[in-house]
Write a structure and sequence with these properties.
Elements: H1 2-18, E1 40-48, H2 55-72, E2 76-84, H3 88-97, E3 104-106, H4 132-138, E4 139-140, E5 143-144, E6 147-153, E7 156-160, H5 167-176, H6 180-190, E8 193-196, H7 202-212, H8 222-237, E9 241-243, E10 254-259, H9 261-271, E11 275-279, E12 289-298, H10 307-328, E13 335-336, H11 350-362, E14 363-365, H12 371-392, H13 398-408
Parallel strand pairs: 1-2, 1-3, 8-9, 8-10, 12-14
Antiparallel strand pairs: 3-12, 4-5, 6-12, 6-13, 7-10, 7-11
Helix pairs in contact: 2-10, 5-11, 7-8, 8-13, 12-13
Length: 413
């Protein structure tokens, strides 16, 4: 009986140390030392971007950054693998299922916590170095899960540069923001109309978040929701703000409402001209910037390679995330993720530099940063879509939409 008990105890201990898909794992020692006489191989998966996102330049500069790190750390070798844009997440899912994910994965969805026991939180290695927006974008339940790279502002008004708006107006709007009444006057003065694609509440959610810091699935109080949507309803009834597709920006004096940075890239290529990006109005003095924080995720394998290996991965993650933000941020019109980062802002107009630095300070994720809650939000948005279609068709009013959001929304933190 004692022999049986001893064997059972051994099995329990082994399970506690090595069970990767359920139960508790052995804690990682973040102070483990990288051994100079050990050669560490770090696997890094990144994604081949669509051509509109400066794909060739991104790949070339990222590979240059990897080469620089490998030269800097002779006993740590980062080996890259490029994944097709439309297959990357499925490939990661398969690798996690088999217990053999890469050490580092470049996430382009804004997911910091993957809800998988093989993920190692960056919290173990990160100091107090992040901008406030980056901090919010990688934190879930008080723990920072990923290494942030780019902060992409969303919830924008994308304005074609050939439309009649002067630089002085842009400077003023970015210096102090604007009210809904000012937005209405501005649209009338310049004979502009906002065309929005509110599919699954993208635009509506960004409006709420820009004004209150809380979106559709985590709505603010009833008064704030109604206050914002009633302003949208007024502009809708004046036909200053109408539902439509992205392509409609080319028809007359229109601007696109609720755009994100990927949409801005698409429009820039389509029109072959610069776009001006303006924040959405807030309520009173409150100003928020919906953002997506793109990060590097750190994983362990089912056959754990040791705390010193995890430490080597963390060194690579910090170098790659910092250098990608510094060298590529300008290319992506993104805000810096590290507060102490000397980032390249050459060529950016003064108003856009100001906008990005504000976004780094005031940005808040437009969607949940963990994979599980993201799926819950997706289902919520799918149900909301028919209500929003009726709103833009003029069949229901702002109060109806506001009540639906308040009845169905829930906390995601």
């Amino acid at each position: 009986m004692r022999k049986f008990s001893a064997v059972l105890l051994s099995l329990v201990l082994v399970s506690w140390n090595w069970c990767p898909f359920g139960g508790r794992e052995q804690p990682v020692d973040p102070n483990a030392v990288v051994q100079e006489d050990v050669n560490y191989i770090i696997t890094f998966w990144d994604v081949e971007l669509p051509p509109v996102l400066a794909a060739d330049a991104y790949r070339e500069r990222t590979e240059e950054i990897v080469r620089d790190f490998n030269a800097l750390k002779p006993n740590i070798t980062v080996e890259m693998r490029w994944l097709p844009w439309d297959q990357a997440q499925a490939e990661l899912e398969r690798a996690l299922k088999n217990g053999v994910p890469p050490d580092l994965y470049a996430d382009w969805q804004g997911i910091a916590k993957y809800n998988h026991t093989l993920q190692i939180p960056a919290e173990l290695y990160l100091g107090d170095v992040l901008t406030p927006a980056a901090e919010r974008g990688v934190t879930r339940q008080g723990e920072r899960w990923a290494w942030p790279r780019f902060i992409w502002p969303a919830g924008l008004l994308a304005l074609r540069s050939d439309l009649p708006v002067g630089d002085s107006e842009l400077d003023r709007l970015l210096e102090r923001g604007w009210t809904w009444a000012e937005l209405e006057d501005w649209l009338l003065e310049h004979n502009l109309q906002i065309i929005v694609n509110d599919y699954q509440g993208r635009f509506s959610g960004q409006l709420l978040q820009a004004a209150t810091g809380r979106g559709l699935s985590r709505p603010p109080g009833p008064q704030e929701v109604f206050d914002i949507l009633s302003r949208v309803e007024k502009l809708r009834d004046l036909r200053l703000l109408q539902s439509g597709g992205i392509e409609e920006i080319q028809r007359g004096s229109t601007i696109l409402g609720g755009a994100g940075m990927p949409t801005g890239f698409w429009l820039s290529e389509y029109f072959d001209e610069h776009l001006v990006l303006l924040p959405l109005p807030g309520i009173g003095e409150n100003r928020y910037y919906p953002v997506t924080v793109l990060s590097l995720l750190h994983f362990r394998q089912a056959r754990y390679q040791g705390d010193d290996h995890s430490r080597a991965v963390a060194q690579a993650a910090e170098y790659l995330s910092r250098e990608q933000a510094a060298r590529l941020g300008n290319m992506f019109y993104s805000a810096p993720a590290f507060a102490d980062l000397d980032w390249d802002s050459a060529g950016l107009p003064a108003w856009q530099y100001s906008f990005l630095t504000d976004a780094a300070r005031l940005g808040t994720p437009q969607e949940a940063v963990d994979n599980q809650t993201r799926q819950q939000e997706k289902r919520f948005r799918e149900e909301l879509n028919s209500v929003l279609v009726s709103f833009w068709d003029g069949k229901v009013d702002a109060a109806t939409v506001a009540q639906w959001i308040l009845d169905h929304g829930g906390e995601s933190e």
